[in-house]
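Work Package 4 report. The design task specified in the project plan requires that, given a folded chain encoded as structure tokens, an amino acid be chosen for each position. We show below one input record used in the internal validation round.
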């Protein structure tokens, strides 16, 4: 189980992430995102208040991300989520 304070900080960051920050973060994980894809992913993240501990929400968001990017990007973002919640 994740430290509640850390979880709150991660949720806040995901809920306020900019497209530019997402591109920089993605590059740290060797994910290639276009400006357009990053903007679409950020739009998806802002559709609802993110709770990284909510597995059903993560799954739903990842499906939306896959639809606007590609399966490889969604898979890598899933790995990022997994590493964050451990």
């Amino acid at each position: 189980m994740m430290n509640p304070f850390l979880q709150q900080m991660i949720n806040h960051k995901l809920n306020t992430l900019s497209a530019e920050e997402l591109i920089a973060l993605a590059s740290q994980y060797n994910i290639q995102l276009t400006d357009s894809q990053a903007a679409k992913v950020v739009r998806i993240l802002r559709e609802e208040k993110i709770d990284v501990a909510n597995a059903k929400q993560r799954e739903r968001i990842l499906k939306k991300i896959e639809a606007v990017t590609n399966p490889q990007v969604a898979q890598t973002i899933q790995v990022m989520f997994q590493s964050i919640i451990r």
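Residues 11 and 51 are 6 Å apart (CA to CA). Validation will be extended to a larger panel in the next phase.
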